[in-house]
């Protein structure tokens, strides 16, 4: 940021007891620069994370899959004629199913087979936790990057919007 | 073939055959044998693209582990596109690799391939030569893609100037497709294509 002050021949408020009228704007510009810098760091980290998992997401956490509640299809819900999106067979009474947090429902055997391979819902890609520390780290960074994107947008709107 | 894979393909097959897209001649699936592990697909080139008016045939192989793993798909019809090999027909598309999801079907795969024809991703290429031309000389790329569509997929547009260049290489003893491929990769520069074929 030094170059910003050099280029604009500013002294960074040095020696002025009174807050200058444009100081809050400067602070906000500085804040934006900090956010941008952090974002760039995050991108580098997530690229590395991505490489380490070779593009394909890891299986869902064993514990999380075990803890998914089994739901038996009731006569009433069997009548709705809904089908399992994995095997494409309609649910019938007494079928054992599991419902993911995104509310998508599958036969237990179908979804458990899938989650042993990839951690996301086959319909909407809602992600379940995994047992892969690298992948979890990358996900945290991604979530933070998203949060920053939101902050930047808010900041940008407050300045120019 | 496992029961789930075969049972699912049977269901999907019905789904595609009944779909609106088939009615509109947009996509098609046919069985190769009665074991359901190999199919032939067909997609129409999307309108307002260099592939418009062409019909593109696909080889679809169903793995034992389907639908937990994606079908293995390649173009049988020769095509000039950054994400499809002009030599082997191999496809670079995320949903056929690490972005596959078990709820996807033959229908969604065929529609995604059609979307790929309408919107190439030159930064994630399968064919580096085509991708470079796409980015650096887009009008030549479009003309070449349209020419390939006409020759191999039954598209409408013919280019006598391109045909005559191919003819002159043929009279030098080169095979037609080889001549077309060389000219296409060398931006239809006859001299550079000849040099390339000789070396
Ligand atoms: Zn199922
Ligand atoms: Zn879902």
From TrEMBL, chain A:
Classification via InterPro entries: RING_finger_E3_ligase, Znf_RING, Znf_RING/FYVE/PHD
Enzyme Commission code: 2.3.2.27
GO-annotated biological processes: protein ubiquitination; ubiquitin-dependent protein catabolic process
Entry GO terms, CC: nucleus
UniProt KW Cytoplasm keyword: no
Compositional bias of kind Basic and acidic residues: 1-11
Entry GO MF terms: ubiquitin protein ligase activity; zinc ion binding
Enzyme class, spelled out: transferase
Region entry Disordered, spans: 1-20
Catalytic activity: S-ubiquitinyl-[E2 ubiquitin-conjugating enzyme]-L-cysteine + [acceptor protein]-L-lysine = [E2 ubiquitin-conjugating enzyme]-L-cysteine + N(6)-ubiquitinyl-[acceptor protein]-L-lysine
Residue ranges occupied by any RING-type domain in the UniProt entry: 84-125
UniProt xrefs under Pfam families: zf-RING_2 (PF13639)
Record PROSITE patterns: ZF_RING_2
Keywords annotated in UniProt: Metal-binding, Transferase, Ubl conjugation pathway, Zinc, Zinc-finger
Family under the similarity heading: Belongs to the RNF181 family.
Record's protein name: RING-type E3 ubiquitin transferase
UniProt organism field: Patella caerulea
TrEMBL record, chain B:
Pfam families, per the entry: UBA, UQ_con
PROSITE patterns named among the record's database cross-references: UBA, UBC_1, UBC_2
Entry keywords, A to Z: ATP-binding, Nucleotide-binding, Transferase, Ubl conjugation pathway
Residues forming the catalytic site: 92
Record-annotated UBC core domain positions: 4-154
Keyword flag Nucleotide-binding: yes
One example GO MF annotation: ubiquitin conjugating enzyme activity
UniProt-listed Enzyme Commission number(s): 2.3.2.23
Location of the UBA domain: 161-199
Alphabetical list of Gene3D superfamilies matching this protein: DNA helicase RuvA subunit, C-terminal domain, Ubiquitin Conjugating Enzyme
Family, as annotated: Belongs to the ubiquitin-conjugating enzyme family.
PANTHER family: UBIQUITIN-CONJUGATING ENZYME E2 (PTHR24068)
Protein name as catalogued: E2 ubiquitin-conjugating enzyme
Organism: Patella caerulea
């Amino acid at each position: 940021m030094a170059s910003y002050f050099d280029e604009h021949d500013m002294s960074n408020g040095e020696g002025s007891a009174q807050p200058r009228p444009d100081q809050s704007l400067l602070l906000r510009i500085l804040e934006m620069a900090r956010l941008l810098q952090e974002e760039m760091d995050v991108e580098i980290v997530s690229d590395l994370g991505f490489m380490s998992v070779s593009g394909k997401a890891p299986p869902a956490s064993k514990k999380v899959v075990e803890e998914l509640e089994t739901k038996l299809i009731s006569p009433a819900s069997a009548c709705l004629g809904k089908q399992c999106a994995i095997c494409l067979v309609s649910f019938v009474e007494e079928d054992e199913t599991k419902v993911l947090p995104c509310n998508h429902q599958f036969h237990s055997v179908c979804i458990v087979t899938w989650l042993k391979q990839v951690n996301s819902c086959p319909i909407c890609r809602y992600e379940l936790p995994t047992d892969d520390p690298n992948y979890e780290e990358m996900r945290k960074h991604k979530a933070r990057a998203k949060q920053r994107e939101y902050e930047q947008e808010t900041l940008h709107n407050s300045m120019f919007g | 073939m496992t029961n789930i894979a075969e049972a699912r393909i049977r269901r999907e097959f019905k789904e595609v055959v009944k779909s609106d897209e088939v009615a509109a001649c947009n996509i098609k699936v046919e069985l190769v044998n009665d074991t359901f592990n190999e199919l032939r697909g067909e997609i129409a080139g999307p309108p307002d693209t260099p592939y418009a008016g062409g019909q593109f045939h696909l080889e679809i192989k169903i793995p034992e582990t389907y639908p937990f793993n994606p079908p293995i798909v390649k173009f049988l019809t020769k095509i000039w596109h950054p994400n499809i090999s002009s030599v082997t027909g191999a496809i670079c598309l995320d949903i056929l690799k690490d972005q596959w999801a078990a709820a996807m079907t033959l229908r969604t795969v065929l529609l995604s391939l059609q979307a790929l024809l309408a919107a190439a991703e030159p930064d994630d290429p399968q064919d580096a030569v085509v991708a470079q031309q796409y980015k650096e000389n887009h009008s030549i790329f479009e003309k070449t893609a349209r020419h390939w569509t006409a020759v191999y997929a039954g598209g409408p547009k013919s280019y006598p100037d391109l045909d005559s260049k191919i003819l002159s290489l043929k009279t030098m003893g080169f095979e037609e497709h080889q001549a077309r491929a060389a000219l296409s990769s060398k931006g239809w520069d006859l001299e550079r294509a000849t040099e390339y074929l000789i070396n």
